[in-house]
Amino acid sequence: xxxxxxxLCEVSLQTARLVxxxxxxxxxxxxxxxxxxxxxxxLALSVGVKILPAxxxxxxxxxxxxxxxxxxxQIVEAHKG
Length: 81
What we know:
Elements: E1 2-5, H1 10-26, E2 31-34, H2 38-47, E3 54-57, E4 60-64, H3 69-78
Parallel strand pairs: 1-2
Antiparallel strand pairs: 1-3, 3-4
């Protein structure tokens, strides 16, 4: 799971923390990418990110904006391979 964030946005950072902790508990691989880097900008553009934070699973944009743990659990369940 990848979270695209902005270090200038407190909501992005809070969501990234929640997702990181969730992934650690659930044994899910986690990556955080900042839109302040070229890699982050390219990734955000390539998948169509319009709102931060954005969550990607297997390279696909699955959620944009803040999320709580229950919603995150539902997103993960809906995208299990």
